[in-house]
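mind reviewing this stuff:

——
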Amino acid sequence: MNDDIAGRVTFIDNVMKFFAQYGIYVIVALLAASWFIRAGMGEQRRIAVYTAIASAGIALAITLMIQRVYDHPRPFVDRTDYVLLMRHAADSSFPSEHATAAFAIAAGAGLYRQRLGVLMLLIACVIAFSRVYVGVHYPADVGAGAAIGVVSAFAVWLARPLFSWADRAIVRRLVPSFLL
């Protein structure tokens, strides 16, 4: 399935391996940096971070529960026509934890900071594609992870009054103002 594209151009293979392994760290770094970027209202900036973190936590919990119940072999375990470009454990592949976390963080932050959200969603798409490209996931694995992540972000978005209260009652009192 990925044998049509993977393993043909070394530069592209290396870029895909980077995003498959480290792309999630790029998204997390962007989220952390967004706390300090002063564009927009302070409370909205912070609530974007809270929403992204809560969305990722809930989405990953759902993903891990699904993996416990439904053991789906990875493509390199199941098939001989897959080109495996990086080492990976032969654990359950459905849904993709990387795609779940990337899309949950991107959608959670994007609900409040649209430009940042678009950038993160583009990176999340590259991460999802790269996971299939390097041979550790099927397209359905990353598609399901993306769906779980985005739905979790919208569910957490419904709790925004709780985050506003927590920001006013706790964070603004405990965190030094230069960090807000």
In short: The two ends are 48 Å apart (CA to CA). The mean pLDDT is 85. The first helix runs from residue 10 to 36. Helices lie at 10-36, 42-69, 75-78, 97-110, 114-133, 139-157, 160-174.
